[in-house]
Amino acid sequence: MSAEDPPPAAHRTTEDRSDAGEDAAALAYPNIALVKYWGKRDERLVLPWTSSLSMTLDTFPTTTRVRLTPRHRQDTVTLNGKPLDGEPLRRVVAFLDLVRETSGRPARAVVESHNTVPTGAGLASSASGFAALATAACAAYGLHLDARALSRLARRGSGSAARSVFGAFAVWHAARTGHQDPDLDSFAEPVPVRLDVLDPALVIAVVDPRPKPVSSREAMQHTVNTSPLFRAWMASSRADLVEMRAALHGCDLDAVGEIAERNALGMHAVMLAARPAVRYLSPASLTVLDAVLELRRDGVSAWATMDAGPNVKVLCHRAEAGRVAGVVRAAVTADSVHVAGPGPGARLLGDSS
Ligand code: DP6
């Protein structure tokens, strides 16, 4: 009997007999952190050492459909039409187990996910992926969570997904030290920003769309365990967050950019100091950083940020994004260059049947 075969009739439960499972689909966008999350203090609960802050994009959405299949004995998960296996599958199944435990419904599911962003290339595909999965799975399993609880749930799939539950700018709080239930205390929430005044855009230079050789999960734990700079990183990132909130409140794009760039370089510095070093940036990333510096010398507000991969995102005013994209294209052989603005939070899609 294969995993897809129904169990013999005599062993079926009431739920098994109700043929059709629930079916829901959701859409979520990636987010790019301007104050980064890099390091967990609890791997099982996905609790970060420091709070982080990001902008959710209006490009590269992930769409995910979850269908309950009470007759199946295993979850089936496909990404862009291909079955997932290994660690990526294990993470999705562990996440669905959590949803099953919380909802009290044991049914297995078929999950079909479509990413429009290169997967695993430091372009936040796990953020949009788990935010969409959390939203769709909750609807399919009949779990009614408010946005904060949904963000806490998405966090368990991938930390950065907690922020993609919300649109535009969001802060993800590290649980306060000594809090009796840190799981309850670590969630994302929107940061109010006057978008028409700040007028932010991110120019995304995909210098290498291939999946990263080391996952951010593995790399960040290795950094926590071995980098002698980790404590200094925590202290400087906490200070960056305070300044970032003030800069956003004041709609000061130059201050936002300056803090974001130094925070990203600090994150790469702490991982370069890990033993052995984790190095995601490539010569092409540094060429884009040089171009960004040149833009600033020419009076353009442009600031770079990089995640767990060589691709560079340049924060600038929307009105100048075309010029910035042109300079980046001229500087480096990018696979593609995209312009993104602030996008919406995760949402359920209409009838998916
Ligand atoms: C560099 O959220 O992918 O993009 O929680 O282990 O799934 P896990 O990590 P993930 O890490 C994102 C790291 C980052 C910075 C950020 O988005 O804040």
What does the model show?
This protein is 39% helix and 21% strand. The strands form four sheets. A six-stranded mixed sheet has the order 8-7-9-6-1-16, with helices on one face. The longest helix has 20 residues, at 230-249. It is built from twelve helices and 16 strands. Mean pLDDT is 92; it is low at 1-21. It has helices spanning 14-17, 86-103, 125-140, 147-157, 161-164, 182-185, 195-198, 216-226, 230-249, 253-272, 283-297, 321-331, and strands spanning 23-28, 31-35, 40-42, 47-48, 52-56, 62-68, 76-79, 82-83, 109-115, 169-172, 188-190, 200-206, 302-306, 312-317, 336-340, 347-348. By secondary structure, it is an alpha+beta fold. It folds into two domains: 20-193, Ribosomal Protein S5, domain 2 (2-Layer Sandwich), CATH 3.30.230.10; 195-340, GHMP kinase, C-terminal domain (Alpha-Beta Plaits, 2-Layer Sandwich). A hairpin with a 2-residue loop joins strand 7 (76-79) and strand 8. It binds ligand DP6.
Question: How would the blueprint of this fold be written?
Answer:
Layout: H1 14-17, E1 23-28, E2 31-35, E3 40-42, E4 47-48, E5 52-56, E6 62-68, E7 76-79, E8 82-83, H2 86-103, E9 109-115, H3 125-140, H4 147-157, H5 161-164, E10 169-172, H6 182-185, E11 188-190, H7 195-198, E12 200-206, H8 216-226, H9 230-249, H10 253-272, H11 283-297, E13 302-306, E14 312-317, H12 321-331, E15 336-340, E16 347-348
Parallel strand pairs: 7-9
Antiparallel strand pairs: 1-6, 1-16, 2-5, 3-4, 5-10, 6-9, 7-8, 10-11, 12-14, 12-15, 13-14
Bound molecules: ligand DP6.
